[in-house]
Structure formats: C-alpha cells, structure tokens
Amino acid sequence: MLADVNSFHNMFYALRHGQSLANVAGIISSDPKISTIEHGLSTTGVQQAQNAAQAFTTSLQTNSNTSPRRVAIYSSDFLRAKETAQIMADACLASGVELYKGNVMLETRLRERYFGEWNGGSDEFYQMVWDVDQTDPNHVESGVESVNSVLSRTTQLILDIEDEFRALEPHTCILVAHGDVLQIMQTGFQKIDCSKHRSLPHLETATLRELKLG
Fold first, then answer.
1. pTM here?
2. Which of 159, 152, 150, 214 is nearest to 182 (CA)?
3. Distance (Å) of CA 99 to CA 73, 113, 160
4. What is the DSSP string of 5-30?
C-alpha cells in the first residue's frame, strides 16, 4: 500500500514493547483474549521502556528543528505494548511535549501477529513460521496470520494516520507494537518483498527506530 507513496506529512517511529513476562517465560503470546490482560512488562521491560522514553524526549529537545515536537502515540492493545506506550506518553507530557489527544490511542491493527496453534508454546516455534514466510507470505499454516495480512493492516493504518493529520501540523507518530508486526511493517516502508521481513535488522525490545521510505 505504500508502494506509490514518495513522502509523508508526519514522521513515523516504530517502538517495540519492552521485555514482557512472555519473553521471560519464552512463550508465544498472540491471543487477544489473553494478551490484552496478561503478559505485561517485566521489571527489566519497565526500565527498558523508561530508558527509551528518556532518550526520545531528550532527542526531541535536541533536534527540535528537524523533529516535530507534537507527538502522537498509537499502540497495540496488548498489555505489554500498552504499558510501554503509557511510559512513553508520561515522559512526553513530563517534558512538555504536546501529545495528540492527550493520551495513547489504542489501535487493534498494531496487535501481535496471531500464531495459531503455536500460541502459548515455546518461542522456538517462531523460526518454523519464519522459514515458511520466506517462500510464501500468504501462508496460514497451523492457523498463523499471513505476512501479507499483517502488512495490509499496518500499512493501511499509516495511510489512515496521514489522512487524519493532513490538515494539521506535522506530528512525530510513535507506533508501539510487537516484533513481527514491526518487522513486517518496515518492509512496506522499505518497499521490499514482505517475505524478507527477517532480513531487516532485528528490532530488540524497547528499541525505537525511525521508519523511512525506501
């Protein structure tokens, strides 16, 4: 959906949630019925999110001429992402940054990719899914959400945000979500085959990355 887009009104950043209790347990947590109320941030994850928020607000003050000081935060409604996003929002407000609508906006299109029958199992199963992704971005083996489905919902969100802000001042938009979701969304920005999402630099927990068009 971003193939014909040459520029954006806003600046976009991906922020992966901080270390979660699911990360610590080494399990896949992708079912909304569970993950919206369980598997929040670990103590380490909270600290990671605080560090990311501090670094962002500091850079915003330092680079005020190039980065819009108006910030919009969109987040997956999974608990680990919501907690990360709220830490970022609190840091923005504390530093005097203008926060769009005054709070985090929850967005189901940023939810974790659903991993079907692998949900609740070991995170070692991720690699099995990724191996198939490389040859078929439409596959739904074992009930897994396809790569193209994730790409479609996340890039449509970007276009919708652009439409919403068209008549407003440019904002720095932070998208707080999950590893697979953000890796796949980045292929849309880079305009590369979404089956190659694992070829992009891995986005570690609580890592903030600017999303630029390729």
1. 0.96
2. 150
3. 8, 28, 18
4. ----SSEEEEEEPPPBHHHHHTB---
